Amino acid sequence: MPRLSPELYLPGFVLAGLLSLSGCDKPAQKPQQRIAAVPVTAVELAAEDTPVSIEFVAKTASSRRVEVRSRVEGFLEARTYQEGRRVIEGEPMFQIDRKPFVAQLEAAQAELAQQEARLATAEADLARTRPLAKSDAIAKRELDQAEGDYRAAAAAVEAAQAKVVQAELNLGYTTIKAPVTGLSSYALQREGAFIGVGSDNLLTYVARVDPIWVEFSVSENQILQARSNQRKGLFMPPENDEYEVEIVLADGSVFPERGRITFSDASLSETTGTFLIRAELPNPPRKNGGDQLRPGQFVRVRLHGAYRPDAVLVPQRSVQQGAKGSFVWVIDTDGKAEFRPVTLGAWQGDQWFIDAGLQGNETIVIDGALKLRAGAPVEVIEADAKLDATRAGQS
For residue 366, is it within any domain? Predict the structure, then answer.
């Protein structure tokens, strides 16, 4: 029999051990761990024309403020209006003692009657003189005298009539009436005071409040910035600059009436460096009495009618701040987070206009951005519909 090699006599389990030792030169393969997707809230953007409003601090003013003064001198008998209340044009406000003016009117009327009697006598004399002069029964001089007396008597009648008219006016001026319909102020003179004529004898004033004026100022920088944005296509004013004016009161409520701009100053104020703008709004009396807007109130003015073409709006909470400025997280087509620097524009409610960095067809992260890093997988658990609702409300 042929002799076998010694290795062939090794037990099988020894061979198996040797084979296992020979395989220890290669490291064992570990299974790859899958990175968990970060849950976020996101919104899909859409570039579209978006209405914009411009806000200023303003002050209300009367559209016609008239000082009430006396046109005649006399003692004040009564105040016939309730201070601070609404008065109607032509409504009596003060009464001056009428008795002296009644006497003046009666004297003027008596003088008129006297002059009319003289005129009648002169007319009769002229009627008798003319035939006599025509037949040369009297001298021409007597006819001239009769005609002169008649013309003088007629002029005296006209003068007496003017005195009667003046006396009637003065008597009427003793009742001082409201010059316009509006809100009255307090009386500066009391019953029994002697009222004179002139600038030092102000009785009160009446402020017309329907319509009411709202005045505000626009700085030169704001105007230049608006023109620059218009050239860049970031801002479009309404046609013919016909803005609609909305008023926000001090408590945050919106005044129900809207108005239009009626005046803009021709020159820049050297003191403030601003242009004065005035708007006019209806301000009818309310059912509970009185007017809601009064002169001197500080309000906020919102100008509506302008819009931003192809605007991109993002919620404020989606914008993060980094070392190099503002940025947002964009979800790419593979469902991964992408770092995107952006240039912020103006506020619009609780959102930002984006001037650069977004095209308007992206999906951005709203909530959950603190856990993101570039390339991290993202799971959208909720779509934020607030942005669409806000756009719908603005349009």
Answer: yes
Banded pLDDT at 143 (limits 50, 70, 90): confident
- Which tokens go with 381? 């658990």
**Bridge partners of residue 214, in order along the sequence:** 60, 279
Query: Which of 163, 179, 205 is at the close of a domain?
Result: 205
Look up residue 133 and give its two tokens: 């002069």
Distance CA 229, CA 231 (A): 5
In this structure, the answer to whether residues 297 and 315 fall within a common structural domain is no
Same domain, 216 and 302: yes
Place of tokens 């242009």: 275
Q: Higher-confidence residue: 129 or 385?
A: 129
Helices (H), the chain: 12-22, 99-134, 140-173, 220-231, 386-394
394 - beta bridge partners?
none
How many domains, in total, are found in the chain? 3
Q: Name 301's Cβ contacts closer than 8 Å, sequence gap at least 6.
A: 55, 56, 57, 58, 214, 216, 245, 246, 247, 248, 279
User: Cα 156 to chain center, whole Å?
Assistant: 59
What pTM was estimated for this model as a whole? 0.71
Phi, psi of 19 (to 5 degrees): -65, -40
228-244 tens-digit pLDDT:
888 888 889 998 889 99
Are both 291 and 357 inside the same structural domain?
no
133 within a domain of the structure (yes/no) = yes
319: nearest Cα among 351, 360, 356, 355:
351
Q: What would the pLDDT profile of 180-215 be if each residue is shown by its tens digit?
A: 999 999 999 999 999 988 777 899 999 999 999 999
Question: Is the per-residue pLDDT at 1 higher than 70?
Answer: no
Domain at 138, CATH number: 1.10.287.470
How many angstroms separate the first and last alpha carbons of the chain? 106
How far apart (Å, rounded) are the C-alpha atoms in residues 94 and 339?
76
Q: In this predicted structure, what is the pLDDT of residue 384?
A: 60
Structural domain ending residue among the three candidates 263, 279, 308: 308
Residues 101 and 150 in one domain: yes
Can you read off the two tokens belonging to residue 267?
Answer: 């020159």
Provide mean pLDDT across the span 43-63: 91
The residue range of the domain holding 381 is 38-50+311-394
